[in-house]
C-alpha cells in the first residue's frame, strides 16, 4: 500500500510541477511579447515627439538667427546669443545622462523672455483650421 501511495503522491507532485512549469513558460512568453510591443509603441511615440520637438527648436533657432541680423539693444543681443547657444548645445544623440526635458524647458523659458524683451506677444505660428485637425500634442 505504501508503494501505491508514493505513486499517487508522485503523480500529484508531477501535476503541481507541470502547472508551475506552464505558468512560468506563459509568463516568460507574455513578458517577451509585451516587451516587444512596448518597444515598438515607445519607439513610435518617441519618434513623433522627437520630430515635433525638432520642428519647434528649428523654428526658434530660425527666429533667433533672423533677429540677430537686426539692430537690437545689448540686452536683447545677449538673450539672442544665449538662446542660440542653448539650442546648439541641445543633445542630438540618445544620451541617458542628458536632461532633455530640463533643456527644453530652459529653451522655452528663454524664448518667452526674449519675446517679452522684444515686446512681441505671439510666440506660436498661426495654424490654419485644416491643419489644426491634424495636430497632436506630444509635448513633454
Automatic annotation (TrEMBL):
Any Pfam family matching the protein: Yae1_N
InterPro entries tied to this protein: Essential_protein_Yae1_N, LTO1_adapter
Signal sequence range: none
Domain spans labelled Essential protein Yae1 N-terminal: 26-62
PANTHER family, sorted: GEO13458P1, ORAL CANCER OVEREXPRESSED 1
Family designation: Belongs to the LTO1 family.
Stated name of the protein: Essential protein Yae1 N-terminal domain-containing protein
Source organism: Drosophila willistoni (Fruit fly)
